[in-house]
Amino acid sequence: RATQYTCMLLSYLIEHKADKEKLAMKLKQLESSMSSGRKMFRLGNMVHALVAARRTTQLPDVVPRFCLTASNLTRALYFVCDAVLWLKSVGLQSDVDKPKWRNWATKCYYFSLLMNLARDWYEISWRLEQAVQEEKTKEKSFWDKHNQDLNCVKCDGLHGFLLLLFQILKRHPPLLLDLVKNLCDLSGPLDTLGIYKTNPGVIGFCGILSSLVGILTLASPHLKLKQ
Questions:
Q1: Name one GO biological process term (predicted).
Q2: pLDDT band at residue 17, thresholds of 50, 70 and 90?
Q3: How far apart are CA 132 and CA 114, in angstroms?
Protein backbone atom coordinates (compact mmCIF):
# COMPACT_ATOMS: atom_id res chain seq x y z
CA ARG A 1 0.00 0.00 0.00
CA ALA A 2 2.81 2.38 0.90
CA THR A 3 4.55 1.51 -2.38
CA GLN A 4 1.40 2.14 -4.41
CA TYR A 5 0.82 5.59 -2.93
CA THR A 6 4.51 6.47 -3.20
CA CYS A 7 4.34 5.72 -6.93
CA MET A 8 1.21 7.87 -7.21
CA LEU A 9 2.88 10.82 -5.48
CA LEU A 10 6.15 10.55 -7.42
CA SER A 11 4.43 10.21 -10.80
CA TYR A 12 2.34 13.30 -10.02
CA LEU A 13 5.43 15.29 -9.07
CA ILE A 14 7.42 14.46 -12.22
CA GLU A 15 4.76 13.93 -14.90
CA HIS A 16 5.07 17.50 -16.25
CA LYS A 17 8.86 17.36 -16.58
CA ALA A 18 9.89 16.78 -20.19
CA ASP A 19 12.78 14.44 -19.43
CA LYS A 20 10.83 12.34 -16.92
CA GLU A 21 7.90 11.17 -19.06
CA LYS A 22 9.09 7.56 -19.33
CA LEU A 23 9.78 7.35 -15.61
CA ALA A 24 6.36 8.80 -14.82
CA MET A 25 4.75 6.20 -17.09
CA LYS A 26 6.66 3.37 -15.39
CA LEU A 27 5.60 4.65 -11.97
CA LYS A 28 1.96 4.76 -13.08
CA GLN A 29 2.22 1.20 -14.40
CA LEU A 30 3.77 0.04 -11.12
CA GLU A 31 1.02 1.82 -9.19
CA SER A 32 -1.61 0.02 -11.30
CA SER A 33 0.11 -3.34 -10.74
CA MET A 34 0.30 -2.75 -6.99
CA SER A 35 -3.38 -1.81 -6.94
CA SER A 36 -4.36 -5.03 -8.75
CA GLY A 37 -2.13 -7.06 -6.46
CA ARG A 38 -3.67 -5.52 -3.36
CA LYS A 39 -7.14 -6.37 -4.64
CA MET A 40 -6.12 -10.02 -4.94
CA PHE A 41 -4.58 -10.07 -1.46
CA ARG A 42 -7.78 -8.53 -0.03
CA LEU A 43 -10.03 -11.36 -1.25
CA GLY A 44 -10.18 -12.89 2.23
CA ASN A 45 -10.67 -9.61 4.09
CA MET A 46 -14.45 -9.78 3.79
CA VAL A 47 -14.46 -12.73 6.21
CA HIS A 48 -12.15 -10.82 8.56
CA ALA A 49 -14.49 -7.79 8.48
CA LEU A 50 -17.54 -9.95 9.25
CA VAL A 51 -15.74 -11.61 12.16
CA ALA A 52 -14.73 -8.18 13.44
CA ALA A 53 -18.35 -6.99 13.14
CA ARG A 54 -19.54 -9.95 15.17
CA ARG A 55 -16.94 -9.18 17.84
CA THR A 56 -17.84 -5.49 18.06
CA THR A 57 -21.52 -6.30 18.65
CA GLN A 58 -20.40 -7.51 22.10
CA LEU A 59 -18.95 -4.14 23.15
CA PRO A 60 -20.62 -2.80 26.32
CA ASP A 61 -20.74 0.87 25.25
CA VAL A 62 -23.53 1.56 22.77
CA VAL A 63 -21.79 4.26 20.70
CA PRO A 64 -18.56 2.35 19.92
CA ARG A 65 -20.66 -0.78 19.41
CA PHE A 66 -22.82 0.90 16.77
CA CYS A 67 -19.98 2.79 15.04
CA LEU A 68 -17.54 -0.11 14.84
CA THR A 69 -20.17 -2.69 13.85
CA ALA A 70 -21.50 -0.40 11.10
CA SER A 71 -17.93 0.31 9.99
CA ASN A 72 -17.02 -3.39 9.77
CA LEU A 73 -20.22 -4.33 7.93
CA THR A 74 -19.82 -1.58 5.30
CA ARG A 75 -16.15 -2.51 5.03
CA ALA A 76 -17.22 -6.08 4.26
CA LEU A 77 -19.46 -4.74 1.48
CA TYR A 78 -16.52 -2.71 0.21
CA PHE A 79 -14.43 -5.89 -0.04
CA VAL A 80 -17.25 -7.59 -1.98
CA CYS A 81 -17.25 -4.73 -4.51
CA ASP A 82 -13.46 -4.80 -4.56
CA ALA A 83 -13.48 -8.53 -5.37
CA VAL A 84 -15.87 -7.93 -8.28
CA LEU A 85 -13.58 -5.20 -9.61
CA TRP A 86 -10.64 -7.59 -9.35
CA LEU A 87 -12.53 -10.20 -11.39
CA LYS A 88 -13.07 -7.51 -14.03
CA SER A 89 -9.42 -6.42 -14.02
CA VAL A 90 -8.08 -9.96 -14.58
CA GLY A 91 -10.67 -10.73 -17.27
CA LEU A 92 -12.61 -13.40 -15.38
CA GLN A 93 -15.84 -11.37 -15.50
CA SER A 94 -15.82 -9.10 -18.53
CA ASP A 95 -19.45 -7.90 -18.33
CA VAL A 96 -18.98 -6.10 -14.98
CA ASP A 97 -20.02 -2.43 -14.99
CA LYS A 98 -16.73 -1.10 -13.61
CA PRO A 99 -17.79 2.54 -12.93
CA LYS A 100 -20.91 1.41 -11.05
CA TRP A 101 -19.07 -1.12 -8.87
CA ARG A 102 -16.24 1.32 -8.22
CA ASN A 103 -18.78 3.92 -7.11
CA TRP A 104 -20.43 1.43 -4.74
CA ALA A 105 -17.06 0.39 -3.34
CA THR A 106 -16.05 4.00 -2.75
CA LYS A 107 -19.34 4.80 -0.99
CA CYS A 108 -18.98 1.78 1.30
CA TYR A 109 -15.39 2.72 2.11
CA TYR A 110 -16.41 6.34 2.72
CA PHE A 111 -19.19 5.37 5.12
CA SER A 112 -16.86 2.98 6.95
CA LEU A 113 -14.36 5.80 7.48
CA LEU A 114 -17.09 8.14 8.71
CA MET A 115 -18.11 5.56 11.31
CA ASN A 116 -14.49 5.19 12.41
CA LEU A 117 -14.18 8.97 12.74
CA ALA A 118 -17.43 9.10 14.73
CA ARG A 119 -15.96 6.55 17.12
CA ASP A 120 -12.75 8.60 17.38
CA TRP A 121 -14.73 11.76 18.16
CA TYR A 122 -16.74 9.89 20.81
CA GLU A 123 -13.50 8.77 22.48
CA ILE A 124 -12.14 12.33 22.34
CA SER A 125 -15.37 13.81 23.71
CA TRP A 126 -15.44 11.31 26.55
CA ARG A 127 -11.86 12.12 27.52
CA LEU A 128 -12.49 15.86 27.22
CA GLU A 129 -15.47 15.59 29.54
CA GLN A 130 -13.47 13.47 31.95
CA ALA A 131 -10.62 16.00 31.96
CA VAL A 132 -13.00 18.89 32.61
CA GLN A 133 -14.59 17.03 35.52
CA GLU A 134 -11.17 16.30 37.00
CA GLU A 135 -10.28 19.96 36.70
CA LYS A 136 -13.45 21.05 38.47
CA THR A 137 -13.22 18.58 41.34
CA LYS A 138 -9.49 18.69 42.09
CA GLU A 139 -8.37 21.39 44.49
CA LYS A 140 -5.68 23.67 43.10
CA SER A 141 -3.43 23.20 46.12
CA PHE A 142 -3.26 19.46 45.44
CA TRP A 143 -2.46 19.47 41.72
CA ASP A 144 -0.11 16.65 40.92
CA LYS A 145 2.69 16.86 38.41
CA HIS A 146 1.06 14.40 35.96
CA ASN A 147 -2.06 16.52 35.46
CA GLN A 148 -0.57 19.98 35.90
CA ASP A 149 -0.50 20.91 32.21
CA LEU A 150 -4.04 19.66 31.69
CA ASN A 151 -5.42 21.45 34.72
CA CYS A 152 -3.80 24.75 33.73
CA VAL A 153 -5.85 24.85 30.53
CA LYS A 154 -9.01 26.89 30.75
CA CYS A 155 -11.81 25.51 28.65
CA ASP A 156 -13.37 28.87 27.80
CA GLY A 157 -13.27 29.66 24.10
CA LEU A 158 -11.73 28.02 21.07
CA HIS A 159 -8.14 28.54 22.22
CA GLY A 160 -8.74 26.71 25.50
CA PHE A 161 -10.58 23.92 23.72
CA LEU A 162 -7.73 23.39 21.26
CA LEU A 163 -5.15 23.34 24.05
CA LEU A 164 -7.18 20.79 25.97
CA LEU A 165 -7.65 18.71 22.81
CA PHE A 166 -3.89 18.82 22.21
CA GLN A 167 -3.23 17.56 25.74
CA ILE A 168 -5.75 14.73 25.34
CA LEU A 169 -4.27 13.52 22.04
CA LYS A 170 -0.73 13.91 23.38
CA ARG A 171 -1.56 11.65 26.32
CA HIS A 172 -3.33 9.05 24.16
CA PRO A 173 -1.11 8.23 21.13
CA PRO A 174 -3.32 5.33 19.87
CA LEU A 175 -6.28 7.69 19.59
CA LEU A 176 -4.16 10.30 17.80
CA LEU A 177 -2.76 7.77 15.31
CA ASP A 178 -6.21 6.31 14.58
CA LEU A 179 -7.61 9.81 13.99
CA VAL A 180 -4.73 10.73 11.65
CA LYS A 181 -5.08 7.48 9.69
CA ASN A 182 -8.83 7.84 9.20
CA LEU A 183 -8.54 11.51 8.17
CA CYS A 184 -5.80 10.67 5.65
CA ASP A 185 -7.79 7.75 4.21
CA LEU A 186 -10.74 10.09 3.70
CA SER A 187 -8.96 12.05 0.95
CA GLY A 188 -9.42 9.30 -1.65
CA PRO A 189 -13.19 8.76 -1.42
CA LEU A 190 -13.83 12.51 -1.05
CA ASP A 191 -12.08 13.07 -4.38
CA THR A 192 -13.61 10.06 -6.16
CA LEU A 193 -17.16 10.94 -5.07
CA GLY A 194 -16.66 14.60 -6.04
CA ILE A 195 -17.30 15.86 -2.51
CA TYR A 196 -13.92 17.58 -2.26
CA LYS A 197 -11.70 17.41 -5.33
CA THR A 198 -7.94 17.32 -4.80
CA ASN A 199 -5.23 15.73 -6.97
CA PRO A 200 -3.14 12.53 -7.08
CA GLY A 201 -0.34 14.31 -5.21
CA VAL A 202 -2.52 14.99 -2.16
CA ILE A 203 -4.08 11.52 -2.28
CA GLY A 204 -0.64 9.93 -2.65
CA PHE A 205 0.81 11.89 0.29
CA CYS A 206 -2.17 11.09 2.52
CA GLY A 207 -1.99 7.43 1.46
CA ILE A 208 1.72 7.24 2.35
CA LEU A 209 1.09 8.85 5.76
CA SER A 210 -1.83 6.51 6.46
CA SER A 211 0.25 3.49 5.41
CA LEU A 212 3.12 4.52 7.67
CA VAL A 213 0.73 4.82 10.60
CA GLY A 214 -0.60 1.35 9.77
CA ILE A 215 2.94 -0.06 9.65
CA LEU A 216 3.73 1.62 12.98
CA THR A 217 0.68 0.11 14.70
CA LEU A 218 1.57 -3.32 13.32
CA ALA A 219 5.15 -3.02 14.55
CA SER A 220 4.01 -1.67 17.93
CA PRO A 221 0.58 -3.16 18.77
CA HIS A 222 0.28 -1.03 21.92
CA LEU A 223 -0.15 2.00 19.62
CA LYS A 224 -3.26 0.52 17.99
CA LEU A 225 -6.56 1.83 19.33
CA LYS A 226 -8.31 -0.99 21.14
CA GLN A 227 -11.84 -1.89 20.18
A1: peroxisome fission
A2: confident
A3: 27
